[in-house]
Amino acid sequence: MADRGLDVLEKYDFEVKRTYKGRGVIMVDTDKGPRVLKNYIGSGRHLEWCAPVLEKLNESGVINVDAYEKNKDGSYVTESETGGRYVLKRWYPCRDCDIKFYDDIMSAVRNLAFLHKELMECEAEKQYTERPIREEYARKGRELARIKKYLGTIYEKNKFVMMASKSFGEFIPEVESSINFADDFFSGNHIEEKLCHGNFNYHNIGYGDTLGVIGNFEKMCYGFQLKDLYTFMRKILEKNNWDIKIGYGMFAEYDRVIRLNSEKMELLYIFFSFPEKYWKLMNGYYNARKSFFPVKNLEKLEKLIEMNSARKNFIATIH
């Protein structure tokens, strides 16, 4: 990409000072500040939909985001001489979020809350919405049931298959409970869907001199903003053996900006109650070449089962 796509930079209204490789992108220093050049696959509809929202976020003075930049022809998508399609995004001098440090974790949550608060004031047509929670959990539950049935047909079982088969007894009841929790919650509560990041994790947050920098809004949609918080928290807690102190530190940081009332905590409880990482592991195994057995899968499953008591202890403190 570094060589094939650089000709598109001539189609933008700035002077290029230098380019260098980033993580899956090309970083571009220009006379108007840093930019990010990224290969683009898609119809462009979602990009056009979210671009005005990102521009408004940058005008807030509270958070910086990687808003899309139009080329000289007024288009967000630019085609190279070789037929590749690219988008250019604004960027800011910043350092990565380092989750080894408690303060960086808390800063990420605080900036997420800032983002959510600003998104509450933004409007866009509801063209992109998340799948209803109950429907999503039911689908994943059916997938786990299918995987369980498949494992039962394997004649010569390796260690992973034996451990996975046994693990269903612990995790499938959790799936069923999360579906029941969702049914009960949505029959009597209503939390309005707002614009969400859609894929918030520590790779998408950086820290500038004054403001946080949030990127990668490719999955922005209408949904429950708390899903962003849950997604970030789950990945942090999985790396910290579901440490309750870290978990409640994140709750407190978010609550300082956006109040986490009892209704919102109950929704977070539902999110955490679904064994998401277990489903990801089993679904990944099932969809891969099943004859190929990576030892890493076994190690992941062993660790997941080992940590599940700590996970359940954390969840129990929420409800």
UniProtKB/TrEMBL annotation:
Record keywords, A-Z: Capsid protein, Virion
SUPFAM superfamilies: Protein kinase-like (PK-like)
Record Gene3D superfamilies: 3.90.1200.10, Phosphorylase Kinase, domain 1
InterPro entries referenced in this protein's UniProt entry, alphabetically: CotS-like, Kinase-like_dom_sf
Gene Ontology CC entries for this record: endospore-forming forespore
Top-level lineage group: Bacteria
The protein's name: Spore coat protein CotS family
